[in-house]
Design the sequence.
């Protein structure tokens, strides 16, 4: 039968060119079973008139549909739906299910009950977003990222794009990490000592799973990154919270019998403290004498724009006791999901096998795109641009915080992208954050950073990585007014 | 100081255009500390002469290096290394570490000791690769994939590319799955009942973690996909292996007290059996009466080119007892790492929280690219092309297997991409596979598919998804000769 031209409507609000939308309209009609094998399509002239588009657009769309075998051209008599088109099976979806499983009991809510940082989905629409760790579109080098991605989509990289790496990583990315990224942290490593991960989150999760078993003792900084505490708790290990001071975690405060210590030595989260060299050496000496393992989350080390970055713990490790995690997601963009783990071969072997079991490997295309972006120097140029911008914003923050009489609890001598703030005793910053939302200001309440048994409610974090510098003054003033 | 032109060598074997390689050479020299802030670059003419390239190429590279702030142009006096370039810290990497940790004891080798399918890394260079589940470059629609990826790299999709989705998925991909993919399996679901995963492997891993706790009883098919058994074992659940027959898993053989059943009903791995409708209904009835959960791995359902695909278990589920896992990685390419989970809201909530903890989310860019590829109809065209090619290859397999007197143990009435084969009793197919490698033939020995307590050594799998049809006859003949 001939399909009446009235059956065709361009999909509303769809992305893509007119030609793409016509193809989509036809292929969807075929796939949904509305148009059937052998049906005759309207003439290109007729369809063009009906849709109000040029005839050449329809002809080009038809030609493409022929080459992808949705349509067949039969000489002068026109276009027909192909005989070989995919046919929808004639299943009737079951009527609305009646839930008969008590999922809360089955799952125990083990994973969804973790406390975490909340932020509104539409945070970008707030004028004063003091929100941590998001990409700033005005700094990102979108054009060069796109060029690198297009290069990684070329024929030459077909296998990188498509292959099932399973246990391997992209050799080009590994080489760049080994030769350029790790040496900047003082680390020299072999390929068998490095694993590419889905960002730092995944790196730390893998480390926790490989190193911890139920009942083991693990020391965490207090306060610390809440997702961190959550993933460690999941292993069944006993968490011992160790209070940090202005120099980070004091090694002498580590409780007896600790098996593993997780910490953010270079840039403590959330207080921004940097552990001095003497303390680093004392920590490693204790690790050696007491036989524990150290896991270092070396995030954001690139953002040292005020002081040279200090050497990583891993660079001081002469016994293979330190596991080092890092990430490109902060400096490139969080949606990238690429990070790394460095550790002894025996550790990396297990982490690699676990990664294989959980997700196989980070997509080859993302790895190769990042490898090009890094090796062509765009990454360093981006980091440089971010440092300059953050330095400026930090000055504006400093000034506004001083002018408004707010109290900084930790600001990181090296730079970074946030301030750890203390409100007067008695202020509940969760309530404060809610109130401030109404005034267009987003802050991060500090409670979730603290161990549950040592909860503090009057701290909060102010990040300047996503806020326009011109907005900083007014944003801080609003916070000060709200604290009153 | 002026940098002597002799300091410059184009990186050997590097990818990219001449201009890119010149930029890389300069930026690497700067980043490694060989060239320092204020150093004067050779003239573009001098460098062009030295490298044997055109002067305009060098000039363009210099211009780009200026815009990314590696170089500064000073009027007529030439180009200088910028003052703002990133400087390498002066760490001395620690001398070779002396490993002092017994990693085998620390980790227990818990993850690396899982049996798994082995294949040589250079499998593509073998003339007769009967290897399962890899992308066939001759069928893949590389051009349209690239177009979709470029579209997903556009300004309009900036947020999809970069954003930290955390708990969310790409709404465009979710919509396509809900409206097009799931209805083909008879499933109707709401957005809160679907989760995007890093391929089917990740989907099944998440399901195992959410549903199983130490000591619970889980039934697995025997034989089954070995990685599957490995990930279930990791949860500490008790595995009960249930032998499959020509119709897949017999529900009446499920042991008492089972909490969760994992199975591949539509297309049993590796025997290719399809569970008939009556058995599916019997299984769901048993699930309802005995209160267990069913997890269905619905992989490769698109490859039903001989018989219409049967409805998924999930489509028959009226009580919310079935969790459904599927993947785009088989039909698009394995390196894509995109799949999905469908289940009741209470289940998906936990799986989503766990995914967030483990890796946050699959990269937005891969999700959006897939969404375009799907919604523009390229996916269905690709699946169609694969079906036609596989049908042809399967006929060649059938013929060659018959002509050479080999025994098929399971071939899948619906189509698929492999045969499950039985060698005479006494043949160890692992030794056979090794011998065949020497003759350019890759087969998959069957032992790892069986539960350890019910090991069989004379089975093997022959896949035809990556072998050229013209090679099938000779490949099968070589296998027959080797079995003797």
Sequence:
């Amino acid at each position: 039968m001939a399909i009446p031209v009235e059956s065709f409507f361009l999909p509303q609000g769809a992305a893509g060119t007119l030609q793409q939308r016509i193809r989509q309209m036809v292929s969807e009609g075929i796939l949904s079973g509305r148009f059937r094998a052998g049906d005759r399509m309207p003439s290109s002239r007729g369809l063009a008139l009906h849709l109000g588009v040029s005839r050449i657009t329809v002809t080009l769309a038809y030609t493409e549909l022929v080459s992808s075998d949705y349509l067949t051209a039969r000489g002068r008599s026109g276009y027909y739906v192909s005989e070989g088109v995919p046919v929808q099976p004639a299943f009737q979806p079951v009527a609305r299910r009646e839930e008969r499983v008590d999922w809360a009991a089955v799952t125990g809510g083990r994973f969804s009950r973790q406390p975490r940082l909340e932020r509104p989905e539409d945070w970008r629409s707030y004028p004063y977003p003091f929100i941590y760790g998001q990409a700033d579109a005005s700094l990102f080098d979108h054009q060069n990222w796109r060029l690198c991605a297009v290069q990684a989509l070329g024929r030459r990289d077909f296998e990188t794009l498509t292959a099932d790496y399973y246990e391997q990583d992209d050799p080009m990315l590994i080489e760049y990490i080994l030769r350029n990224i790790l040496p900047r942290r003082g680390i020299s490593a072999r390929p068998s000592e490095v694993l590419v991960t889905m960002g730092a989150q995944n790196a730390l999760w893998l480390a926790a799973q490989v190193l911890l078993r139920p009942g083991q003792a693990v020391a965490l900084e207090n306060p610390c990154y809440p997702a961190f505490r959550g993933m460690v708790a999941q292993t069944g290990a006993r968490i011992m919270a160790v209070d940090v001071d202005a120099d980070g975690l004091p090694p002498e405060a580590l409780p007896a019998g600790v098996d593993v210590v997780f910490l953010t030595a270079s840039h403590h989260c959330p207080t921004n403290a940097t552990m001095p060299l003497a303390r680093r050496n004392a920590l490693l000496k204790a690790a050696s004498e007491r036989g524990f393992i150290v896991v270092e989350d070396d995030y954001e080390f690139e953002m040292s724009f005020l002081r040279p970055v200090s050497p990583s713990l891993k660079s001081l490790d002469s016994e293979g006791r330190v596991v080092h995690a890092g990430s490109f997601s902060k400096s490139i963009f969080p949606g990238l999901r690429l990070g790394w783990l460095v550790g002894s071969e025996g550790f990396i072997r297990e982490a690699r096998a676990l990664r294989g079991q959980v997700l196989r490997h980070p997509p080859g295309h993302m790895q190769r795109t990042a490898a090009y972006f890094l090796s062509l120097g765009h990454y360093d140029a981006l980091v440089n641009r971010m440092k300059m911008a953050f330095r400026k914003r930090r000055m504006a923050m400093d000034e506004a915080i001083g002018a408004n009489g707010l109290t900084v609890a930790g600001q990181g001598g090296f730079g970074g992208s946030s301030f750890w703030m203390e409100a007067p005793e008695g202020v509940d910053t969760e309530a404060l954050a809610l109130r401030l939302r109404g005034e267009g200001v987003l802050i991060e309440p500090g409670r979730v950073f603290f161990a549950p048994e040592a909860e503090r409610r009057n701290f909060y974090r102010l990040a300047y990585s996503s806020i326009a510098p011109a907005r900083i003054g007014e944003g801080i003033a609003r916070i000060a007014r709200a604290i009153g």
Notes: The radius of gyration of chain B is 28 Å. Chain B has three domains: 5-81, 123-133+381-483, 142-376. Chain B touches chain A through 134 residues (CB under 8 Å).
